[in-house]
Amino acid sequence: MARGLKALWCLAMVLLVSNWQHWARGQATSQVPCYFVFGDSLFDNGNNNYLTTPVKVNYLPYGIDFPTGASGRCSNGLNIADTIAEQLGFNSFITHFGVGSCSSYLDGVNYGSSGAGILDETGFLAGELFTMNTQLYNHKIIVSRIAKQLGSEEVAKKYLGQCIYVTDMGHNDYLNNYFLDTYSSSKIYTPETYAQHLIETYTTQLEDLYSTGARKIAVFGLIRVGCMPSNRQQHPNELDENSCAYKLNEDIQIFNTKLQTLVKELNAKHADAAFTYINSYEIDSDVTNNGFKFTSESCCKVIESGSVPCKPLSIPCADRSEYVYWDGAHFTEAKAWAFGKRAYKRGSPQDAYPYDISELVQLKLPKNDANIANHAQL
Q1: Residue range 282-308, pLDDT digits in tens
Q2: Could you say which of 51, 83, 246, 307 would form a disulfide bridge with 128 (CB–CB 3.0 to 4.6 Å)?
Q3: Euclidean distance between CA atoms 180 and 174, whole angstroms
Q4: Distance between CA atoms of residues 192 and 178, nearest Å
């Protein structure tokens, strides 16, 4: 009992000092003490800059609208993870993990890595990447640092349990694995069995994240990869009425359906945690694209037709706020904001369930008790 009271007192002091530091710097207090990001190129904020890989975008015109220029984000400015951080009240960018040298980790860390996937073999042809397993390993390094700084693992767990975690994984397991002839996965698995293989691996990873103290976890589904300019150009004879490569979208929707079931199962198993599904496929829809130029051409000039990266030092479109896609696969900052707003505060019940991120912030979770009834039903 005394030990528990001591841990709560220590945690209260940590949060008090954190809030005082924000006030002293003239900043508003964030809605949660920290925000941790796991993901691929939609969320990467510069981690690949530190890795031996050609999959990095630390050159103009990337970052043309970002305060410090080309940062490694696959965007002209902010990405989705950045827009969520801003809506959570963080007045500075969440630090990237880099090569483990980040020091301002109490506000959270972004572990995202362009080209990375759920499977370790995904993207290995592109050199070094922080796969989901690697990102979890990196997170454990940060958790140990937080425990050391706060004085104990118990205090750290209570602190981390109040934070928001987002994870956006699976795109590259299709784009840079299953859909490529250089991989054998499409010969080994049907779309159904491959999605199940990904889900089984992802289940272990999300359980691993839970074991580190994560309790409020937003799991993002996959966007409509068949609508990316690069894939529309590569599959001109396989386009549906929306001019998207329908077969690619059908395959990833199998994964999305299974992911929704997984979120429901994790909520039933862990009554002291809240997992929620962000319906990226729904958010990345024609409705969201209203007001944007949704074409087979991206805002920046890509290296060649059907490719993803912007041509270095090329001049992008002038009306960047009107385009859905910045390059062959990634959103403009304007689209990232449209997307991030619906993930944070859903525009319809289909956008996120059982909670959007703003609801996840406010949620009061019960303590871990085997006798506690399930707190959330999908």
Answers
A1: 999 866 677 787 778 899 999 999 999
A2: 51
A3: 8
A4: 12
* Six-digit token string for 163: 């934070």
Distance CA 167, CA 216 (A): 11
Beta strands 274-278; 352-353: pairing state: antiparallel
- Evaluate the CA torsion angle 220, 226, 227, 229 in order and state its sign: positive
Number of neighbouring beta carbons within 10 Å of residue 352:
28
CA 314 – CA 1 distance, rounded (Å): 64
Half-sphere exposure of 152 toward its Cβ, with a 13 Å CA cutoff? 11
Do residues 42 and 79 lie in contact, with contact meaning Cβ atoms separated by under 8 Å?
yes
Distance between CA atoms of 46 and 284, rounded to whole angstroms?
Answer: 24
Give the end-to-end CA distance of the chain in Å, rounded to a whole number: 35
Measured between alpha carbons, how far is 220 from 5 in angstroms, rounded to an integer? 36
Q: Are 29 and 19 in contact (CB under 8 A)?
A: yes
What structural domains and CATH numbers belong to the chain?
Answer: 31-362 (3.40.50.1110)
What are 209-228's pLDDT values in tens digits? 999 999 999 999 999 999 99
Q: Which long-range contacts (CB under 8 A, 24 or more apart) does 11-17 make?
A: 11/150, 11/155, 11/158, 11/159, 14/150, 14/155, 14/159, 15/159
Query: CA-to-CA distance for 156 and 146, rounded, in angstroms?
Result: 6
pLDDT of res. 371: 34
Q: So which residues are the catalytic ones?
A: 41, 327, 330
Q: 331 is written with which tokens?
A: 């959103």
